[in-house]
Amino acid sequence: MTDLDPALRAMRDCFADAVPDLRSRALSVDADPTAVAGHLDAPGLDIVRSATTPKRHRGRLAATPLDAYDTETCLARVVGTVELARGDAAMLTAAPGPSLAGTVVDALGSEAQQDHFYETIGDGRTWTFFGMTEPGLGSDATRLSTRLERDPDGGYRLHGTKRYISNGTRGSVGAVFARTGPSPLSIRAVLVHCPADGFTSRALDMTGLRGARISELSFDGVRVAEDMVLGSHLRLSQRGLWGVMRTFNYMRVHIAALALGTAMALTEYVREHRPALAAAEVMTARLLAARQMVYEAAASVDHDPDDQRPPSMAKLHATRLAVTTAHWAATALGPASLLDHPLLEKWSRDVYAFEFMDGTSNIQRLQIARDL
Question: C-alpha angle with apex 278: 277 to 283, nearest 5 degrees?
Fold first, then answer.
């Protein structure tokens, strides 16, 4: 069983302090995703940026109580994600900062590439994007169709389309996965700076997580410099599918934490408006047990980054529980609850997004079955 040490507990309190601030801004950004630009100095978003930035790269960010802590382990970041998602998961995903692109750079980038990436976003007002999912293919890395082709003039050219990419229309730099050939070893991640010749993006009409500005990106011969190809310092076997799967393991626990935090927010909302409801105690107990499971999965990623079963189990359970909690919350507050409580209605839309991020529940079941 994973017990949080005193430092992690103190860190969790720092994250929890951001909850009211994020929650107070959620409906504004849901109604108009561009409104997030007016919230960039919010204390809650300062916490989000610090949480996802390695300690050695926080120099230009606004100072926060979190600066005393190292948040680079998967467990530390998942502890933070659960708490911040209690504020609002869409605000968390809409915030500028390293996000999932930072995870790829941390895993596959050289020290020079990491320095370049964090220097690029060091102002705290630069969005990033992570490009894996493709139209008709989902997040199946073995079937990637995006191509990274040698340019006779040096470097590479990127061709392909990515869909359902958070912050795709506002991102200035992103990590994009593509292939240089047909084998799994040919899969590579590259850093793409935008705007760029051959790059276009458009926001998609979404029901949930509207603040994240989920988008479709097209790359028509976008130039990629040689030193923007991640993983060249690693062994050949660690540059391709191996790196993808390690990234996925981290992402799945992160998405589980987003779902769980949203479910906790829903339950807290019901307890606030129906304090005498006994069923809320039962739901809270279920969520605390699920939180322990997510913590265990995060600790597993730190201990064995290649073990795929714990992250898949955490995502499968947490996303299903979040939807169940949303249904329960709407019922607990009465037939007109989704009309009378806009925040409840918003979260009830948001929970469905987690099912489709980084593999649906059926994909997670297949992953678990293969491992068994």
Answer: 100
